[in-house]
Write a structure and sequence with these properties.
The chain is mainly alpha-helical. The chain has six helices and five strands, in the order αββαβαβαααβ. Strands 2-1-3 form a three-stranded mixed beta sheet, covered by helices on one side. Strands 4-5 form a two-stranded parallel sheet. It is rod-shaped. The protein starts with 10 loop residues before the first helix and ends with a strand. Mean pLDDT is 81; it is low at 158-170.
Length: 235
């Protein structure tokens, strides 16, 4: 036979080649698995870092805990509310008003009141009050005593005084409980201001029970009463 036999296959070489191919395939798969694991590990590390950073930094609207029960929580980063101090109301003033006023006495007025407010509280000035001698815009102080001055009395005509001084008959007695201002001015030493004071006292406290009670009117003392007694009555 002229044909030559094919060379025999070396089984060891085949096994070695197959082994190398299998190992190469395994190495390739291991590399792919390593890349996947690396990517997954990086993703996990990134997520953990983000969560840790979020927990370590307080949120903008986080509330500060109150130090005691009942306190209102406010945002830690927000603007603090401005608490206005309580308004303190000053105490009222007690002032004594006397002199040429309708109802002299101690009055209570709000702090910061003026003298004109005090005059209104005592019924206003009397008819003979000299308001030019005081400052109505003055600010009052507590426990102050204000004396409203009177104008000097106007000289009365001699004829009027003579009529009052000589009116001795009982029929000309002036009833101080019913007399008008003009009738009271006919009495000795009773001018318009004094007549108004007698009428104001009568309206405030009622009629006089006896003629001696006229001495309770401001400005009528014992001497003036003795001059008026022969000319007045309460009947």
């Amino acid at each position: 036979m002229n044909g030559a036999l094919p060379p025999l296959v070396d089984l060891d070489d085949v096994r070695a080649e197959i082994r190398e191919q299998v190992q190469a395939q395994l190495r390739k798969q291991y590399r792919v698995y390593g890349i996947i694991l690396t990517v997954l590990l990086l993703a996990v590390v990134t997520v953990i870092a983000m969560v840790t950073a979020r927990e370590s930094s307080p949120p903008a609207d986080r509330l500060t805990p109150p130090p005691y029960w009942g306190q209102v929580c406010i945002p830690a980063t927000g603007a603090r509310a401005t608490v206005s101090p309580p308004t303190v109301t000053p105490p009222p003033l007690r002032v004594y008003i006397s002199g040429a006023v309708v109802q002299p006495g101690v009055i209570t007025v709000p702090a910061g009141s003026l003298l004109t407010d005090a005059l209104e509280a005592v019924g206003g000035p009397a008819a003979d009050a000299d308001l030019d001698g005081i400052n109505l815009a003055a600010v009052l102080t507590d426990h102050q005593h204000v004396i409203v001055p009177r104008r000097p009395p106007t000289p009365r005509p001699t004829v009027v005084v003579t009529r009052a001084a000589t009116a001795t008959p009982a029929s000309t007695l002036v009833n101080i409980n019913t007399a008008t201002a003009a009738e009271l001015e006919m009495l000795p030493h009773i001018g318009p201001a004094m007549a108004q004071r007698i009428i104001a006292y009568r309206e405030a406290y009622g009629p006089f029970a006896r003629i001696e009670d006229i001495q309770n009117v401001e400005g009528i003392g014992e001497t003036r009463y003795e001059e008026l007694a022969p000319f007045i009555t309460v009947k």
